[in-house]
Amino acid sequence: MADRIITKDEIRAAVKEAYLQFKGNREGKNADYIPYLAGINSELFGISVVLLDGETISIGDTDYHFGIESVSKVHTAILVLKQYGANAVLQKIGADATGLPFNSIIAILLENDHPSTPLVNAGAITACSMVRPTGDADAKWNAIVSNMEELAGSAPVLIDELYRSESDTNFNNRSIAWLLKNYGRIYDDPIMSLDLYTRQCSLGVNTVQLAVTAATIAGRGINPVTGKKVFDASLAHKITSLIATVGFYERSGDWLYSSGIPAKSGVGGGVMGIMPGLFGIASFSPPIDAAGNSVRAQLAVRYIMNKLDLSVFGGQTVSIE
Ligand code: GLU
Fold first, then answer.
1. Which residues are annotated as a binding site?
2. pLDDT (tens digit, 9 = 90+) per residue, 230-259?
3. Which end of the chain is more exposed for a tag (fewer CB within 10 A), N or C?
C-alpha cells in the first residue's frame, strides 16, 4: 500500500499548467556555437510524460525532432554499462561531477587524466571509443543507434545539417579527444570515436522519444511502450545516479535541490528526467541559459515536480492511478 496516490488527472493538469505558464517566457537564447542550433525556431516548446503503464501525456511541439546533443550521452552510457558492467565503467571513465563546463579541458587535467563521467564531453567520447565491436565504425554506429531506438521505442533520425555544422566547428572536442588519447583513455581510434560522438549528438528525437527513454530507466530497464527489456534492472540506479550527479552540468546541485528529479539536458534544448518507479518526463525548447540548460524546459519540469509534491528524496512510496 503506497503512502500517497497521485491521479493521472493531477499529472495532466500539472503538465498543462506548466505549458501555459512558461510558453511566453523569453529568457535565454539558442546555443550559437553550433551554427545549426542558432537557426532553430526559439518558440518551439513541448512537454511529454510517459507513465510506467505506457500511457503518454503530451502537450505542445512534441512531434518536432530536435538535436539530442548531450542527452545522447545517457544512451551511450547505458550501452557501455551493458557491454562492460558497472565496475569497468567506473574504472575506465568515472562517475564524478567535474564542477566545470561540459566541454572543459581543465577538468581532464585536474582529475588526473580521468574523464570523470560518461555524461560530460570527455567521458562521452571515451564511451564512444569503448562501444563494441572495437575497430569497426559502422558496426559501432549501428550499436549506438539501435540502443537508442530500443530505449526510445522508435528510431532517432540523423539531422545531416546539424552533423555537418557540428563537425565543421568542433575544435574544442577535437582537443579533448587527443588529450584523452595522450592519457590512454581512448580505447579505439580517436578520430573515429570523436566522429561517433559528434554524430550521436546530431541525432534528432522528439520529447515523446526522450520521455519513453526516461520511463525505461524509471522502469528498471523495461520499455513501457514496447514492453521489451532493454537493460538489466541492476543498471537502472547506476545510470540515474550518473544523471543526478552531473545531468545539469555545473548547476546539477541547484537543479536537484529545487526540482527533486535527476535530469539530463542538452544544448539542443532537450531535458529528460527520471522519476524511478513512477514516470519519465521530457521537455524541449531551444533557448538555453548560461550553463546550457533549456530555460522553458527546466521551468516546466521543475513546476510539474513541485506541483505534484514529488522528489526522489521524498521518502514516501507513491503510486499513480
Ligand atoms: N555536441 C555538443 C558538444 O559537444 C553537446 C553539448 C551539450 O549538449 O552539452 O559541444
1. 70, 121, 166, 173, 197, 249, 267
2. 999 999 999 999 999 999 988 999 999 999
3. N
